[in-house]
């Protein structure tokens, strides 16, 4: 079975980006534009300069961030769907950026739970936060790609990353290096690097998902084989028992009666 590598994920992301660069940059541009429009409507920067002097200002800023998060969640779903299609070889559609795929509430819930779990881990100690972040990082994408339930998505992400700790750490270390390189390049560099990171992440996700599914099929196949052997053995034992009983009855019937 082919095992996915970190470098392979990043190398493939460049080819995928070149093939779909228009729709991928479109998603970033629209998301940035909407965020800028919201900021200008609520005049957040002016309120921040005021130093949160009034409860009204605090309420406006809180409303802004809540609304921004809810809209950003919709875009995150659409952008992830576009990335999944691009990595999978399906032509991405511009309209998918505004399509919640029917999983908006589940995606919102799993994102909040994931964020709180990671935050809780970092508050306790750094290491638990990193562990939780790596262990369950695929839960949100599973909601979109496989239409799983919240609990099922967390369980599947845990299964996919089981025994892959160093591979996951290696991926994010390499990603940080590429992002830093994008920052050095400035301008378009960071935009392209950000898009490539998302594509590489989806590529890694698909590879680990395939590995997990293959291992599950092998395990199920082994269990089925064992069950077949068990059933066959029980059948043979039952048949043998019946033969012995019939033989014994036959012998008894042949004994002459006095």
Describe what you observe in this structure.
The mean pLDDT is 82. It is globular and about 65 Å long. Helix 1 (6-42) crosses helix 9, helix 6 (139-145) packs across helix 7 and helix 8 runs antiparallel to helix 9 (188-254). The protein has helices spanning 6-42, 44-49, 55-88, 104-124, 126-135, 139-145, 150-161, 165-185, 188-254. The chain has a domain at 6-99 and 165-227. It is mostly helical and 258 residues long.
Task: Summarize the model shown.
With 258 residues, the protein is mainly α. Helices cover 83% and strands 0% of the residues. The protein has a domain at 6-99 and 165-227.
Notable traits:
9 helices, single chain, 258 residues, mainly alpha
Alpha-beta content class: mainly alpha
Mean pLDDT: 82
Q: Could you give the count of β-strands? A: 0
The largest sheet, given as strand count, sense and whether it forms a barrel, is: none
Mind telling me the C-alpha Rg? 28 Å
SSE inventory with pairings:
Layout lengths: L5 H37 L1 H6 L5 H34 L15 H21 L1 H10 L3 H7 L4 H12 L3 H21 L2 H67 L4
